[in-house]
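Minutes, project huddle
Topic: does the predicted pose make sense with 4'-deoxy-4'-aminopyridoxal-5'-phosphate bound?
PN asked that the exact inputs be recorded in the minutes so nobody has to dig through chat later. Recorded below.
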Amino acid sequence: MIYLDHAAATPVSEKVLAAMKPYFLDDFFNPSAAYLPAKKVASDYEMAKATIAHAIGAKGSDIVITAGATEANNLAFTALTSGCPLEASAGKLVLYLATEHDSIRRVAERYGGTEIKVQKNGVIDLGDLKAKITDETQLISIALVNNELGTIQPLAEISTIIREIKLDRLKRGVKTPLYLHSDASQALNLLEINVARLGVDLLTISAAKTYGPKGVGALYVSHDIRLQPLTVGGGQERGLRSGTENVAGVIGFAEAVRETKEHLNSNRKKYKELKKTLLDELQGYELVNKKHSLDSFIVLCYNGLDAERLIFLLEDREVYVATGAACAASKGEKSHVLKAIGLPEAEIAGSLRLTLGQTNTKEQILEAAKIINEVVEGEKKRLRNG
Ligand code: PMP
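Predicted holo structure (tokens), as shared on screen:
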């Protein structure tokens, strides 16, 4: 099998699995229990949280562990609920990038959020951002790396704009807070992240996209923000995320973060080379995400072909690729991201997303390119022959 869909899921390494295993077997205790072995588990959990937080330049007490990126994104939006009349502010409270993941779009819609446009290359239209921020805007959500194109957004530049707006509000006595949230789920295994340098107030990360277990994520929350819990109960995670801690998951997340950080630079170098090899070998495609995107994301357009069919034909040859976000694809929806960058319907229909990962080798890429070329040629022939 040749797996080229690492933006959808990443495998857990033997080392990560080994780090998690004791917490299912001998150290299974509830960290809130009173006896000594449970207290040791609680301490291991806190250490793991500190490791995860350290990877984004934060402290363990700055992050809330969640059951993945979707929950962290939803939790971030509760920064809004304290004392804001939703009906009165509909459409003005929240701004989000047109290319955001559905876990942002769907929750932003609840607040009547407004989309910020992207340019043809997938990068934010800063003019549109500036034009849409009003005195009522409280939250702006922009993913650090887009999950379909791999586009890196200029967050530091965006946070500078936001800081200026905050200063201006202060001068004019406007008391509305303004927060910057970023979904960095796709970025943690590929970029150095530092919350202070990025200038974000809230940041989502995910173990599932960082070679850790699925169903574990975290939200970084700056000290001046008060969130509302999505679940209430036993008061874990400082009351923001009640429920017995997912100890093994968090231990696995920490180990995965340690491993990926160690290989960050060598992986990026490897993806650059693999991408070049792949593009040199492939035939008859248009590269959609030419600039400003990570090398591990390769979006190809085969004009006139049906990407859904290509995926099934490639699966028959054991090459696994995607058309876009896995959750949208499973519902048969066309990519809102490719629409947002202005790709015509016919080109969207012929677009494939390939995402490289740690286990991919040059041999695999050469083999994948050969199979893709054959499948594409076969489809063209079938269409020619009616
Ligand atoms: N945000 C981004 C950018 C993603 O790529 C994903 C996963 N496709 C999510 C959020 C949701 O992650 P999860 O399903 O693990 O909650």
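Observations noted during the meeting:
- The longest strand covers residues 179-183.
- The pocket of 4'-deoxy-4'-aminopyridoxal-5'-phosphate is lined by residues 68-70, 101, 103, 143, 147, 183, 185-186, 206, 208, 325 (CB under 6 Å).
No decisions taken; revisit at the next huddle.
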